[in-house]
Amino acid sequence: MSLLGLYNELNTYLVIAAVIFGMGIYGMVTRRTLIGMLIASELVLAGSSINFMAFNRFTAPDPVTGQVFTLFIMAIAAAEAAIGLSIIIAVYGHFKSIDAEDTAQLKG
Amino acid sequence: MNPSTLASPAFFSVDGLVGVVFLIMVAITIVGGLIACNSERLVRSVAGLVVCFIGVAGLYFFLNSPFVAMMQILIYVGAVAVTISFAIMLAAPEEKKKIGPSSILAGPLGFATAALLAGGFAVLALRTEWPILKKLNDGSMKNIGLQLLTDYSMVFELVSIVLLVAILGALVIARQGREN
């Protein structure tokens, strides 16, 4: 296995996807602001999309399925970003902050 | 995977050049992801996200689907990243307070969780022997279009409705926040 032939290996893509997924999880846990968490969740979605595309290219009998699934993931991610950002703007209008710790009105 | 492709390509050849471009794309993806989840300012974080998505589009190109690569750039870089940067401009005040994780434990614990998950998935992927099945078609853009409007037409319509509802809901929620 050589460094320059890595692009033709399924395992390369799976490891890259796992790394991006891990970075997304790290960002979701450590970020303070809601927008930072949203950005990290986009990374998680990108990691899972790479996984689908890799299996689609190397193992799946029908190479259309993974591409269609990735397109649907993109559509759901766009919807999620639109809804999440409008909620964040509404939260900012109410609390004047997008810090996840300041939005604690129900806390006793 | 395929034994014939496991031979090491020479550096000064077409295959070697393709390998170098692939390594550059991987580097772009990883660096962009690191910027996106580590930078202190949200604007830089979005810029890192854009870089990461361009690298991911390059990876999709290597995975034999230029259509999905184009859609990745069009939707993620063109729409999602621009939406996020608009929200940052509308909502995020310049950080007056302390930046960084909320407690001392959040950083190491988050890193441990992420490393455990990523390492677990990577080891699982490397240890498994994935079966390789015979391809039914070539996965071209024509086949994607045909299947999207025949086999997956129900899902296609449902996603359209979800997008419509999401856009309307986003407008309503953002507007209510403004009236308050």
Would you give an account of this structure?
The complex is a heterodimer of chains A (108) and B (180). With 108 residues, chain A is mainly α. Chain A has one domain (6-95): Helix Hairpins. In chain A, 71% of the residues lie in helices and 0% in strands. Chain A has helices spanning 10-30, 34-58, 65-95. The longest helix of chain A is centred in the C-terminal third of the chain and has 31 residues, at 65-95. Chain A starts with 9 loop residues before the first helix and ends in a 13-residue tail after the last helix. The mean pLDDT of chain A is 86. Chain B has 6 helices and no strands. Chain B has helices spanning 14-38, 42-62, 66-91, 106-127, 141-149, 153-179. Chain B has 180 residues and is an all-alpha fold. Chain B is 72% helix and 0% strand. Chain B folds into 2 domains: 1-93, NADH-ubiquinone/plastoquinone oxidoreductase chain 6, subunit NuoJ (Four Helix Bundle (Hemerythrin (Met), subunit A)); 138-180. The interface between A and B is large, with 85 and 103 residues.
Put the structure in a nutshell.
The complex is a heterodimer of chains A (108) and B (180). Chain A has 108 residues and is an all-alpha fold. Chain A has helices at 10-30, 34-58, 65-95.
Relevant terms:
heterodimer; A: 108 residues; mainly alpha; 71% helix; B: 180 residues; Four Helix Bundle (Hemerythrin (Met), subunit A); 2 domains; 6 helices
Query: What is the CATH level 1 assignment of the largest domain in chain B?
Result: Mainly Alpha
Segments of chain B where pLDDT lies below 50 for 5+ residues?
A: 1-5
Query: In the CATH classification, which architecture of the largest domain in chain B applies?
Result: Up-down Bundle
Spatial gap, N to C terminus of chain A: 59 Å
Can you lay out the helices and strands and say which pair or pack?
The complex is a heterodimer of chains A (108) and B (180).
Chain A: H1 10-30, H2 34-58, H3 65-95
Helix pairs in contact in A: 1-2, 2-3
Chain B: H1 14-38, H2 42-62, H3 66-91, H4 106-127, H5 141-149, H6 153-179
Helix pairs in contact in B: 1-2, 2-3
